Amino acid sequence: MGKIAYVFPGQGSQYVGMAYDFYREFHQAADVFHEAEHSLRMSLPDLVDVVLKGPEEKLNRTIYTQPGILVASYAIYRVMEESGLPKPDYLAGHSLGEYTALLVAGGIELFEAVRLTYLRGKYMQEAVPEGKGAMAAVLKIPPEEVEKVCEEAREFGIVEPANYNSPQQTVISGEKQAVERASELAKQRGAKVIPLKVSVPSHCSLMKGAADAFRLKLAQTPIKNVDIPVVQNYTARDHKMAHEVRENLYRQIFSPVRWYQSIEYMVEQGVDTFVEVGPKNVLSKLIQQTVPEVRVFNIEKVEDLEKVKSAL
């Protein structure tokens, strides 16, 4: 029997009503939502309402999206844990999802994780004026080609690879004009380019100021060594020591997410089953593109629990 990894989604997977059936049916899930609301009672007193009832425009604001996805994903995980699903051998999360992974690993408490994701969203939102930044997904050309088009578009401003999502999908991020130029150059090489609806150009050097402001909050937050290895975006390697985890969380904000490299690393360590926990199934699709030979499941709705339990 191979090893199991649980993975957690990041920004872009949110929708109004995510994890609502878990919230309604299981007190463990409802407890997560209400503890999160208590944690942010001064900053976002309506967090639970916005996650479960909307409006969508509000949920899509980074300060709501980041704690919202964390809470929905962790609420589902808490029910999985109670229902007797096996403990994972590895954990990972895409960008924001790394905080959910750390929470599951026991490296941080829920109260602190919710507060950190809110502040992370706040500093990221404030770092670049609305409309100055942009992100785009580049499909059908390899990551090396995407790196080249970013180099060539540099005369128009900052543009960098932000997410290495799969060998066929790389997201670029930076200043709007430079991202548009890199997108044109990618299309000339046969790529399909999809501009992303985001308010913040994440995981590029424009976020260095946000990361520096956030670093102080990270330093003040109790983070413990973890029992289950967390494969972090910045290195695409597993970490257990608190000081490494903290440093990688800081660097992750202005560095690319090495997602498919993280998946390949876990497969090299013997993982043959991935379970995506949280809203939508974006990561499941990326994993299948990267390592088609592994088993991939996702738990988003209550009915998924039994299906995955019997399959595992």
TrEMBL record:
Gene3D superfamilies: Malonyl-CoA ACP transacylase, ACP-binding (3.30.70.250), Malonyl-Coenzyme A Acyl Carrier Protein, domain 2 (3.40.366.10). It catalyses: holo-[ACP] + malonyl-CoA = malonyl-[ACP] + CoA. Pfam families: Acyl_transf_1. Its EC number is 2.3.1.39. The active site is at S95, H203. It is an enzyme of class 2 (transferase). One of its GO terms (biological process) is fatty acid biosynthetic process. GO terms for molecular function: [acyl-carrier-protein] S-malonyltransferase activity. GO terms for cellular component: cytosol. Keywords: Acyltransferase, Transferase. The keyword Transmembrane does not apply. Belongs to the fabD family. This is Malonyl CoA-acyl carrier protein transacylase.
